[in-house]
Amino acid sequence: MSLSIRHSWFEATARQRLAGLLDPGSFCEFLPPAVAQPSPHLAQLELPGAFDDGVVVGAGQLGGRLVLVAAQEGQFMGGAVGEIHGAKIVGLLRRAVAEKPAALLFLIDSGGVRLHEANAGLIAISEIMRAVLAARAAGVPVIALVGGSCGAFGGMGIVAKLCSAVVMSEEGRLALSGPEVIETVAGVEEFDAKDRALVWRVTGGKHRYLMDDCAALVDDDIAAFRNGASALLAGWQERPNTLASLRAEQVRLQGRLATYAGCRDGLEVWAALGVAEPARVPLLDCDELIALKEGLPT
Amino acid sequence: MEKLEFKFPSQALLAAAPPALCGVVGSGNLEILVRSGVDRQICEISVNTSARGFGETWRAVLATFAASQAVGGTSIAINDMGATPAVVSLRLAQALADYRGGAQ
């Protein structure tokens, strides 16, 4: 792919991502900026809000099929979830239950709860979690797209993993506690948040793909995310969680913890996975990494 | 945060259009929402800015914009996170271009 025709997902705003992700001209925004209300909590704290409270929601088409979309704006307060921000996402997910679109695409770019809004933000995140599961139970696939500068952390990391599938770029990151949080709580000996290469080796898209935490790895390119989401949805059969599937997943995760508990770095995890030259993984491009994963022992 | 309200006389913009949004409330950046206003000869601008004490700078930048462009009949709302005057002028030009582009 020529660099000149690439439109970076990482660098784009939420609105630019939606414009490139959906069929041209098909996007229709719900609660557009002119009618939406900025956060009253931020106003009380004397902070300027955003008209859309940091998330764009609406409907559009992906390859001619109706999809609902929510896109978080990472540049506004780290994409953090406040009360109105969360309510817009929950409303969209409930609409998906009623309307049964082909999918709901969730463009996650968020550090988690907006701490300024405290309990309202925490409640919003838990409502999003419930609403994601309700949409999936209604047969609507919820696809998380993670490739922005804020990644998917905190409550939004959990939300991402509740979705039907995750599409990531190498630049995307997905985890629960963010690097700074781990360093603050457990000390720099446990995790050096300033070591960016280390951060990506344990939370970045390549690591998540090798660990089966995301279903697809794509280039940092808006068209690549579009193609990745389309390919994933072609012939997708939504399988909501059952008690048996949750128990099987628990067993899988316990086994994974036992296998890799002693590892201090993604490099060690990759070696244990059977990667011959783990140090080369960060240098591989997307296609090379996908080929490497296909060659791994299962 | 400081809230500022301005009204500038300006040549009437030819056609009203759907609202247009430009920019993001990120560090050193701002978002600008352009809507059709009431008075065809006036440009109304309201600003929420995180940086206090820059009212006269805002007035100078916005007055230049309203004097040099035909923006009468628009109502402009700005959420600002410490953008410099150059960035404000750039975003105003972008927002106006988007608004004009939406006029059919």
Automatic annotation (TrEMBL), chain B:
Matches recorded under InterPro entries: Mal_deCO2ase/Cit_lyase_ACP, Malonate_deCO2ase_dsu
Subcellular location as annotated: Cytoplasm
Main location: cytoplasm
Organism whose genome encodes this protein: Azonexus fungiphilus
One of the record's GO cellular component terms: cytoplasm
Post-translational modifications: Covalently binds the prosthetic group of malonate decarboxylase.
Protein name in UniProt: Malonate decarboxylase acyl carrier protein
Modification sites for O-(phosphoribosyl dephospho-coenzyme A)serine: S27
Keyword set, alphabetical order: Cytoplasm, Phosphoprotein
